[in-house]
Amino acid sequence: MTRHGTAAADRRDDAVRRAAARVRRPETAPDNRDELMAALRANDEAVTEILRPALTAALPAAPPGSRWNDDEHGAGP
């Protein structure tokens, strides 16, 4: 058994660390809403590229019907 208890947890933790390394922090604050939204979208896309496959791979162990939710403000159960 690994430090976190399972190999799956280690793979998840690795994916989160790799995704966090992709987050870009601007050197200066965005000048307007459009620049802010563009920076947020770029970070969302960068981390989703890593996290989606890693988390989707974990779904077979999840309850039936589990899936990726593209709605960032999802309503929940």
TrEMBL record:
It comes from the Bacteria. Residues 1-32, 57-77 are annotated as: Disordered. Residues 68-77 have a biased composition (Basic and acidic residues). This is Uncharacterized protein. It comes from Catenuloplanes indicus.
